[in-house]
TrEMBL record, chain A:
Origin: domain of life: Bacteria
Organism: Ancylobacter oerskovii
Protein name: Xanthine dehydrogenase family protein molybdopterin-binding subunit
InterPro entries hit by this protein: Ald_Oxase/Xan_DH_a/b, Ald_Oxase/Xan_DH_a/b_sf, Ald_Oxase/xanthine_DH-like, AldOxase/xan_DH_MoCoBD1, AldOxase/xan_DH_MoCoBD2, AldOxase/xan_DH_Mopterin-bd_sf
Keyword Oxidoreductase belongs to the record: yes
UniProtKB/TrEMBL annotation, chain B:
2Fe-2S ferredoxin-type domain span: 5-81
PROSITE patterns for this protein: 2FE2S_FER_1, 2FE2S_FER_2
Protein name: (2Fe-2S)-binding protein
Organism of origin: Ancylobacter oerskovii
Repeat is among the record's keywords: no
Pfam families: Fer2, Fer2_2
Keywords: 2Fe-2S, Iron, Iron-sulfur, Metal-binding, Oxidoreductase
Keyword Cell division: no
TrEMBL record, chain C:
Residues annotated as domain FAD-binding PCMH-type: 1-177
Protein name as catalogued: FAD binding domain-containing protein
SMART domains recorded: CO_deh_flav_C (SM01092)
Keywords: FAD, Flavoprotein, Oxidoreductase
Alphabetized InterPro entries for the sequence: CO_DH_flav_C (IPR005107), CO_DH_flav_C_dom_sf (IPR036683), Diverse_Substr_Oxidored (IPR051312), FAD-bd_PCMH (IPR016166), FAD-bd_PCMH-like_sf (IPR036318), FAD-bd_PCMH_sub1 (IPR016167), FAD-bd_PCMH_sub2 (IPR016169), Mopterin_DH_FAD-bd (IPR002346)
Length: 791, 170, 286
């Protein structure tokens, strides 16, 4: 299981323990404080008139009737806001040749997708704002919508936006060389064309923002349902010309985020401008219909893949072509190209083969913007790779597990790199696979499958190995010129009563950030967990840091907390030593008491040390340096990323007459390095798996040829619900990263990364004897019945 | 044409009268007029379950009822069901099992669970999942929620009572 | 997503309700449980000037058997159809269908009358009422009348209800121990609108099917009675051959909508699969 940093028997040994989250209790009592709940004095509400067209020119806007409606305080157009906010462009310097049209809060002349906000209304109530939005008259002249990835790339094609010269946002090519010869000489070549539907995050709390401009102080306070308050502090400061120190962003309780709430949205920028114009607090909460046409979407890839295998089943090479459809511009500031980039770079990552070629095309469309959502690119790379491995195994006459045992990078082969340029420190694919095989009782399951097939019951078993990116260094965004921090900061203080306050830049969305930071601080400092108060999500109180994304909270935030706690502990012991006229090395801090390091006898309580430091510094020796508060920053310096790995298994039963799939059980064995809180890790993995299974069977933003989203409601976009989801068995292998003392890596993407791949393989396994084959997710009943030849 | 109407109803044991616009949903009334923000609005069309409250003892969507329709009704929200201890064992089990992450679905989940256990003393896991079929959770994957409800069903069947939820030590 | 403004009336009797509706010059809607109407208002797909809340009219309540008919007041909630012993005995198709209707909280508030008046072709209860030859009791300014289910559901969301008329009760010929019933539907997720659904009611005094009533949902612009499939069973044993013929006959009975997500052929296929499974199960139980 979990190798603790120290003995689990000592007092305050919290790293590695399952403890419940202290901050969950108020959520259970209905005392959460989400942005949607907040009310400020004289607060107004914003609503938007949205474009009914996927692509159109704005001929005229008539707001006269709307301005006269009851309760209306302001009606603002793109021109009104353009004077307040500088434009933004979603490109990164290290993506060579990338282009995107600049964006403003509201459009001046051209709308780029159906659902784009065009005019803003601010009124006393949301209902009044919606009433007035209905009374605005906008004359649109339709332009041809770009909605097909192939047509979009033909010479002379209509452009998705007038500010770009063609519809190719970004293209990149990876080639280790000699691929054509390898494929020509291979014993087996398998190929497939994959389709991955558009998904969206569907956080239960929609996007919400409440902006308050204090003109007297020149201060902007934004209550913002976001993962990344510092990023938005920087953006609001720079785009609205307000001093950074005068912008405060507060992220209170957040009702789910999953990457969706760290992007710049036009409405959010508009709301800042509206608050500046109104000089009153302005609140905007996207309703669910707005969420579907304005939250970022993700995935939407067509991947053509080939794999070459020798006669014994050794994988020789992979060759992929990925075309991904984004919006009519690239999302800011993280872009819409990172996902595709990660798809082509994660492809084949668990395997030994060294020959690889990939082409990525990122294509503009008149649809909602796409960008990073949980497990960015991983599910696409994993599903393609793992399905190709299964196809290759079948061709080579190998069992899927045997195929993987043969081809996975051996655990002792690390450190190594991938043909796509990733550097792996230490992964455990073989150990994870062995553990999974035992967990699922693989051989017995195969025997049962064969017996049931004879009775007309079609079950399938799918296996998928994966690699997950976590703990990103500045190599992710910083080198591309984005002001997105890869470091985190923590301020730790001993209070005058001997308790501990930890102000830290990583943020909480329910995954347990505050809990694990509290565990680490208490453990490393030597105090009871109940004595540590962790504060997150407020740029005015917590030091600047990257916050929460790309699975960095435990690995980077946790290491920050650990190093900070050790520094503070040294200060406490030095001070105690001065008080006790002892040497710091002879003392230890345990359970809130300064004790003899050797015998453990109590010398003085932490509370007494604090009392003396704060109230009786006159009794200390003259040169004593009583520093009971420290601020510490930590940034990853070793590997550019701390990769994690694991393997998933999925067991399904296919109803061959209805195309319905019952997911019987799902298993995950994953290796996120040091586990700080097993309870929380397991629940991260389970939640991630269900998001992956949702993608595999249900979730898809469906568009018609005119660029209209046809299922943009929570009744029509099918999210995974309790009845259809299985129980999920989670196991662990622990390979701590040596880059940090803590050794933790991320676990938030792991579940999502491979669940859809395992499901895809399982359904194909179930269909194999019937001649069915599918390479598209979601695997809807219609698609399955078609592949079975039933309709 | 739509002037405010007086509405008298009992919320969390307290009978009160307020003037409301007919178009105001019970969810908005609880959240905005009474400050009971534990009732959440996730979809405003009755498919996510975040706004479930007890209306005359049964779970209903507060977003699918106008406040004027609730005149004369008895409403219990997560706040009231916490104060009177009705949910204490469920809250305790959810906490221990980490059956919530962001917490936005949680009040609705608790109301659904309470509604289920009032009808079915010892539901199977499949019955628990069925009872949650209208409660969307994006974070947990549901298993921990099912576990927590199953635990409470067994405890209630065994006659165990729970200590008040908020007064326990963390 | 906030409804447009409207005014609100809460009549205490059917007569008052009719008046309240009439006073709005036709720009009114009745509301009972509101489980379908409120979302339509929130989305501003509908925006009547007045809502007439009929939920407190005692005449619209009640479940009773009278002279061989089960009378279900229009305000009967879905959960009551699920739980009530008279429904289980005399209208078993409604009881069997009830757990498939949306989710528990919707069933606590949604009413049978509301579901029937909306006439969603994918809804369970309208189709089952059609299978059971129910009659709809309607009251309006011109007086009262009873309309057979077969004449009531006219087209997509179109019923025999004239503007201002009120559905008072549903009358169902009371089924007895000789009636065998089965219901199932195929939905992507529990509680979703079905891709296809089917209810079957048979009388089989001996081996031979004496009477067969089959109705399907989500396979046309109204709930549909499968007369050709019924005919394929009547007077025959319930065996693989007759079942196959009934499945095959569904092509004449159904008129499934065609869309990119669910092609018409798929709905027909699913209805056939369902009917085959339901009849197969009934044959096994016989």
């Amino acid at each position: 299981m979990n190798a603790p940093l120290g003995s689990l028997d000592r007092p305050n040994s919290y790293i590695g323990r399952s403890v419940p989250r202290p901050n969950a209790k108020r959520l259970l009592a209905g005392r959460g404080r989400y942005v949607t709940d907040l009310v400020l004095p004289r607060m107004l509400h914003a609503a938007f008139l949205r474009s009914p067209y996927a692509h159109a020119r704005i001929a005229s806007i008539d707001t006269e009737a709307a301005r006269a409606m009851p309760g209306v305080r302001l009606v603002a157009t793109g021109a009104d806001l353009a004077g307040l906010c500088t434009p933004w462009t979603g490109t990164l310097d290290h993506f060579k040749g990338m282009k995107s049209a600049p964006q403003l809060p509201l459009p001046l002349e051209e709308v780029l997708w159906s659902g784009q906000a065009v005019v803003a209304v601010v009124a006393d109530s949301r209902a009044q704002a919606e009433d007035a939005a209905e009374a605005i008259l906008v004359e649109f002249e339709e332009l041809p919508p770009v909605t097909d990835i192939d047509a979009a790339r033909t010479p002379g094609a209509d452009r998705a936006a007038s500010g770009i010269e063609d519809n190719l946002c970004f293209r990149t090519r990876l080639d280790t060389g000699g691929l054509d010869a390898i494929f020509a000489g291979a014993a087996h070549v398998v190929e497939e064309e994959f389709h991955f539907g558009r998904h969206t995050a569907v956080t239960l709390e929609p996007r919400a923002i409440l902006a308050d401009w204090d003109a007297g102080e020149g201060k902007l306070t934004v209550h913002h349902a976001t993962q990344t308050p510092y990023q938005f502090q920087d953006l609001y400061s720079r785009h609205f010309g307000i001093a950074e120190a005068s912008v405060r962003v507060i992220a209170p309780d957040i009702g789910g985020s999953f990457g969706m709430k760290l992007h710049v949205y036009h409405e959010d920028m508009a709301v800042i401008g509206l608050a500046l114009m109104c000089r009153r607090p302005v609140k905007y909460v996207a309703d669910r219909m707005e969420s579907f046409v304005s939250d970022i979407h993700a995935r939407d890839h067509r991947v053509r893949a080939r794999m070459a295998v020798d006669a014994e089943g050794t994988i020789l090479a992979m060759d992929v072509d990925d075309v991904t459809a984004i919006g009519a511009f690239s999302t800011y500031p993280r872009t819409s190209a990172v996902e595709g980039n990660q798809v082509v770079r994660l492809m084949g990552a668990p395997y030994r083969f060294r020959n690889y070629r990939a082409e990525l095309s990122v294509v503009f469309q008149n649809k909602v913007q796409t960008s990073q959502y949980r497990a960015v690119g991983h599910p696409v790379a994993c599903a393609v790779t793992e399905r190709m491995v299964d196809l290759a195994a079948a061709r080579a006459g190998l069992d899927p597990v045997a195929m993987r045992e043969k081809n996975l990078i051996p655990d002792e082969a690390y450190p190594c790199d991938s043909p796509t340029g990733y550097k792996f420190e230490a992964l455990s694919h073989q150990a994870c696979l062995a553990k999974l095989k035992a967990l699922i009782e693989y051989d017995a399951l195969r025997a049962e499958q064969a017996a049931l097939r004879a009775r007309g019951i079609h079950r399938g078993i799918g296996i998928a190995s994966f690699v997950e990116i976590s703990n990103p260094s500045p190599a992710f965004y910083g080198i591309g010129g984005a002001r997105i921090s890869a470091q985190d900061g923590a301020t730790l203080s001993i209070t005058p009563s001997g308790e501990v306050r930890c102000l830290i830049s990583v943020t909480e969305q329910g995954q347990g950030t505050e809990t694990i930071i509290g565990q680490i601080v208490a453990d490393q400092l030597g105090v009871a967990r109940e004595k540590v108060r962790v504060v997150t999500g407020d740029t005015e109180t917590t030091p600047h840091g990257g916050a929460t994304w790309a699975c960095r909270g435990a690995g980077i935030g946790g290491e920050t907390a650990l190093q900070a706690a050790r520094r503070l502990r040294d200060n406490v012991l030095a001070l105690a030593a001065a008080i006790l006229q002892a040497s710091p090395g002879q003392l230890d801090l345990r359970d809130g008491r300064i004790v003899d390091a050797m015998g453990g006898a109590e010398r003085i309580s932490l509370a007494e040390v604090a009392r003396i430091a704060y109230f009786r510094s006159d009794t200390l020796p003259p040169d004593t340096n009583a520093q009971l508060s420290i601020t510490h920053h930590y940034a990853p310096q070793g590997y550019p990323f701390a990769f994690t790995n694991g393997v998933q298994g999925c067991h399904v039963e296919l109803d061959t007459d209805t195309g319905l799939v019952k997911i019987l059980r799902h298993w995950v064995v994953e290796d996120c390095g040091r586990i700080i809180n097993p309870l929380l890790v397991d629940e991260q993995v389970r939640g991630g798996v269900v998001q992956g299974l949702g993608a595999a069977f249900f979730e898809e933003c469906r568009y018609d040829a005119g660029g209209q989203l046809t299922n943009g409601s929570l009744a029509d976009y099918l999210v995974p619900m309790a009845c259809e989801m299985p129980d999920i068995v989670v196991g662990h292998v622990e390979t701590p990263t040596a880059d940090t003392v803590l050794g933790a890596k991320g676990c938030g993407e792991a579940g999502t990364a491979a669940a859809s791949a395992a499901a895809l393989n399982a359904v194909n396994d179930a269909m194999a004897p019937l001649g069915g084959r599918i390479a598209q997710i979601p695997m809807t009943p219609a698609r399955l019945l078609k592949s079975l030849g039933k309709i | 044409m739509s002037s405010a109407l007086p509405v008298t109803l009992t919320v969390n044991g307290e009978t009160l009268t307020r003037l409301v616009e007919p178009r105001e949903t019970l969810a908005d009334f609880l959240r905005r007029d009474l400050g009971l923000t534990g009732t959440h609005a996730g979809c405003e069309m009755g498919v996510c379950g975040a706004c479930l409250v007890m209306l005359d003892g049964a779970p209903v969507h507060a977003c699918l009822t106008f406040a004027v329709q609730a005149d004369g009704a008895e409403i219990a929200t997560v706040e009231g069901l916490t104060e009177n201890g009705v949910l204490a064992d469920l809250q305790h089990a959810f906490h221990q099992r980490n059956a919530l992450q962001c917490g936005f679905c949680t009040p609705g989940m608790l109301v659904s669970a309470q509604g289920l256990l009032a009808r079915t003393a010892l539901p199977s896991r499949a019955e628990i999942r069925d009872a949650l079929s209208g409660n969307y959770c994006r974070c947990t994957g549901y298993e921990a929620i099912v576990d927590a409800i199953e635990t409470v069903a067994r405890r209630r069947a065994a006659g165990e009572t729970a200590a008040p939820f908020m007064e326990e030590p963390a | 997503m906030k409804a447009r403004a409207f005014d609100y009336a809460r009549p205490a009797s059917v007569a008052e309700a009719l008046t309240a509706f009439e006073q709005a010059d036709g720009d009114a809607s009745y509301i009972a449980g509101g489980q379908s109407l409120v979302p339509a208002l929130a989305l501003r797909l509908q925006a009547p000037a007045r809502l007439v809340d009929i939920a407190h009219i005692a005449e619209l309540r009640g479940i009773a058997v009278e002279e061989g008919w089960l009378r279900l007041g229009a305000l009967t909630r879905h959960v009551e159809l699920h739980d009530h012993p008279l429904v289980a005995t005399h209208a078993p198709l409604l009881a069997l269908a009830a757990p498939h209707v949306a989710h528990p909280a919707i069933r606590n508030r949604g009413t049978l009358g509301g579901s029937v008046a909306l006439a969603d072709p994918a809804a369970e209860f309208p189709a089952m009422l059609l299978a059971m030859d129910a009659e709809m009791e309607i009251t309006g300014p011109e007086g009262s009348r009873r309309v057979p289910a077969g004449d009531f559901f006219q087209d997509l969301y179109q019923t025999a209800l004239e503007p201002g008329e009120l559905l008072v009760a549903l009358h169902i010929p009371a089924a007895g121990p000789g009636h065998r019933c089965a219901f199932d539907e195929i939905a992507r997720r529990r509680g979703d609108y079905a891709l296809a659904g089917c209810g079957v009611m048979l009388t089989m005094p001996g081996d031979i099917v004496d009477e067969a009533r089959i109705a399907c949902l989500a396979v046309g612009s109204t709930p549909l009675r499968a007369r050709a499939a019924e005919a394929a069973l009547i007077g025959r044993r319930l065996d693989p051959d007759s079942i196959r013929k009934a499945q095959s006959a569904l092509a004449d009975d159904l008129d499934p909508p065609d869309d990119a997500e669910v092609p018409a052929a798929m709905r027909l296929h699913l209805a056939r699969v369902l009917l085959g499974r339901l009849l197969g199960g009934m044959a096994e139980a016989a």
